[in-house]
Design goal:
single chain, 7 helices, globular, two-stranded antiparallel sheet, about 10% strand, two-stranded antiparallel ribbon
Length: about 140
């Protein structure tokens, strides 16, 4: 895979937008992406399909707990990560946008999430996964 793609996605990961609540930075989106990397390592994600299911939610919760973060409900980063440029939602119909996502909305309207194909390809390499995990840890998860 090209160095260009590695640098492009490194930059995109650094720029994941995190909201804040009561003065605390909400790290749910980088934590979700980190958990997807772990799921890929452990062979739980195939064919670039990340499902809104208990398995994905449990990985997300475990990673959140590992980093001592209050757990934002899983549906929020699953839905909102699509606005960071590399995470996409495959809808059951054309319109999968809403101002008020909910678990029910996602179950009824979204088949799965998927990554840019170039990012998916990069994540098949262990060294790249480690590189991206280090970026998330050092930029988003440091105390």
């Amino acid at each position: 895979m090209s160095v260009f793609h590695k640098e492009l996605y490194s930059d995109m990961i650094l720029r994941i937008k995190c909201g804040s609540y009561q003065g605390r930075r909400i790290k749910a989106k980088p934590l979700l992406f980190y958990s997807v990397i772990i799921m890929i390592e452990k062979d739980f994600v195939h064919d670039n399909c990340i499902y809104f299911d208990k398995v994905s939610e449990e990985f997300y919760k475990k990673i959140s707990a590992t980093y001592g973060e209050a757990i934002t409900p899983f549906f929020k980063p699953f839905y909102y990560l699509q606005f960071d440029g590399f995470w996409h939602l495959k809808g059951k119909r054309d319109n999968v946008k809403t101002n008020r996502p909910s678990p029910r909305f996602i179950r009824e309207n979204i088949e799965y999430a998927f990554l840019d194909n170039a990012l998916w390809d990069l994540l098949q390499e262990a060294s790249i996964r480690e590189h991206f995990k280090l970026i998330i840890e050092s930029h988003h998860l440091k105390q």
